């Protein structure tokens, strides 16, 4: 692990003590603090007025009971969360995750990452995150609807266009956003479209929002490759996951001329040496909501499925972890490096463990951290808010053009900052410092609040 500046170690100690047992949150804070040593050495002003301590403490944390009735008439209880982390730059903004692994520590790590990610976009959005330990897998459409409605009955009093604007994340897509928006509208008697993003087009959703996180990751990686006069063209690419982020990262990488050789779900992974057939993946995952193992059965020759195992053992030149946190270990990173990986772009939030990040840095692998590489999703959410505010609806082309511009801007700002701090090509440092400085400036000007 990297050293923490001696001025910052006491801040980390307080975070560890105050948030006992929240391992993912500790991991996310530690990584940012490791980068900030360079900033406070250069600009001691940022260490004043407990500015960094304030950034590490959420402005508000809401935990609530979510009761709902399943299809058998049984009452079920889940726990709901919304962590409103930082509103210096705009209303809290960040997704809602429905997954059995969700707890306060997970929501806090995601909310903390979101502050810097949102700052990097250059758009006026603060950071927050929410979710529930509800497991949508195997639930009927009616059960999903009743759960989303119950979740919003509590959440509605805490959100709003100018307060907090949730969106989707793992387990929450267009269908769930629709049910939540329906209940919000009924409870408030307001057609306040910008209270949620990721809506259907008919409710004021933005074109390209569904594609944005994955497309944005591919744009970022393409730009990062170009700094070494490389590109996706002809490259072997492995993408973990087959959710919304993975599918559209694959789509854009294919457009850039890549060959996708493997993708996965939480059970296992498929390898197709002829190149993954994305239409078939979409059919299995988006239409039938089935398992990726079916891919090999339907495809036959050339494709095979491995139950369990590590997708990172598949040799590739570009790796895009797009599934979930800590899915790529130090061991996985070493396997990728040994097999000649050139670039890694995180489509998921914090998918690489600290050991993996360290290994990539030492090997000189181009490494794009999630808070920079996957910011295209939330950036397009902010474009959705813009369209709602002006009661407008942009074309797909116009929206994607803005997305591409934003991703190039994030890339270039991170690269410039890394250079300025004497670490050219270090996108982790570049992203953490660039995001922090924007939030810190905004907070300073607001006084101690
Ligand atoms: N959940 C996404 C993320 O991790 C999107 C959040 C949003 O659009 O507000 O950034």
Question: What would you say about this model in short?
Answer:
With 449 residues, the protein is α/β, with parallel strands linked by helices. Among the domains are: 61-192, Leucine Dehydrogenase, chain A, domain 1 (Rossmann fold), CATH 3.40.50.10860; 210-368, Rossmann fold, CATH 3.40.50.
Structure description:
This protein has helices at residues 9-18, 23-42, 51-56, 104-120, 141-155, 174-188, 209-226, 244-255, 278-287, 293-299, 330-338, 354-363, 370-373, 376-389, 396-420, 427-446, and strands spanning 60-69, 75-86, 92-98, 127-132, 164-168, 236-240, 259-264, 268-272, 303-307, 318-321, 343-345, 366-368. By secondary structure, it is α/β, with parallel strands linked by helices. Among the domains are: 61-192, Rossmann fold; 210-368, Rossmann fold (3-Layer(aba) Sandwich), CATH 3.40.50. The strands form two sheets. Strands 9-8-7-6-10-11-12 form a seven-stranded mixed beta sheet, with helices on both faces. A five-stranded mixed beta sheet has the order 1-2-4-3-5. Strand 10 (318-321), helix 11 and strand 11 (343-345) form a beta-alpha-beta unit. Helix 11 (330-338) packs parallel to helix 12. The chain is globular, with a radius of gyration of 21 Å. 51% of the residues are buried. The chain binds glutamic acid.
């Amino acid at each position: 692990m990297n050293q923490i500046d001696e001025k910052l170690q006491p801040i980390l100690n307080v975070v560890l003590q105050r948030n006992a047992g929240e391992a993912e949150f500790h991991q996310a804070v530690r990584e940012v603090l490791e980068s900030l040593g360079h900033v406070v050495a250069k600009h001691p002003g940022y260490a004043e007025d407990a500015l960094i301590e304030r950034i590490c403490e959420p402005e508000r944390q809401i935990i609530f009971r979510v009761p709902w009735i399943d299809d058998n008439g049984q009452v079920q209880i889940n726990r709901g969360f919304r962590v409103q982390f930082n509103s210096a730059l705009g209303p809290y903004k960040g997704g809602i995750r429905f997954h059995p692994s969700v707890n306060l520590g997970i929501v806090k790590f995601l909310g903390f990452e979101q502050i810097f990610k949102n700052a990097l976009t250059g758009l006026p959005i603060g950071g927050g995150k929410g979710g529930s330990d509800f497991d949508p897998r195997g639930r009927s459409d009616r059960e999903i609807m009743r759960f989303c409605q119950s979740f919003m009955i509590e959440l509605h009093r805490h959100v709003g266009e100018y307060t907090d604007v949730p969106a989707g994340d793992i387990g929450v897509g267009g269908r769930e956003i629709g049910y939540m928006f329906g209940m919000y509208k009924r409870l408030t008697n307001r057609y306040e479209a910008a209270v949620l993003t990721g809506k259907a087009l008919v409710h004021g959703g933005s074109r390209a929002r569904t594609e944005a996180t994955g497309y944005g990751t591919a744009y970022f990686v393409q730009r990062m490759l170009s700094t070494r006069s490389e590109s996706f063209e002809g490259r072997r690419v492995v993408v973990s996951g087959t959710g919304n982020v993975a599918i559209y990262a694959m789509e854009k990488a294919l457009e850039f001329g890549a060959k996708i050789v493997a993708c996965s779900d939480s059970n296992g992974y498929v390898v197709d040496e002829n190149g993954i057939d994305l239409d078939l993946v979409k059919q299995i995952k988006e239409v039938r909501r089935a398992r990726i193992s079916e891919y090999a059965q339907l495809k036959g020759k050339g494709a095979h499925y491995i139950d369990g195992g590590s997708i990172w053992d598949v040799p590739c030149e570009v790796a895009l972890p797009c599934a979930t946190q800590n899915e790529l270990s130090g061991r996985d990173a070493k396997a990728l490096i040994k097999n000649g990986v050139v670039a890694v772009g995180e489509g998921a939030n914090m998918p690489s463990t600290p050991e993996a990040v360290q290994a990539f840095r030492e090997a000189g692998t181009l490494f794009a951290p999630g808070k920079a590489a996957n910011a295209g999703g939330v950036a397009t959410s902010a474009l959705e808010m813009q369209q709602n505010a002006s009661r407008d609806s942009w074309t797909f082309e116009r929206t994607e053009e803005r997305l591409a511009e934003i991703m190039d801007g994030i890339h270039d700002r991170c690269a410039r900052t890394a250079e300025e701090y004497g670490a050219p090509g270090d996108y982790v440092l570049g992203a953490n410092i660039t995001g922090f400085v924007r939030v810190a400036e905004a907070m300073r000007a607001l006084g101690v609040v």
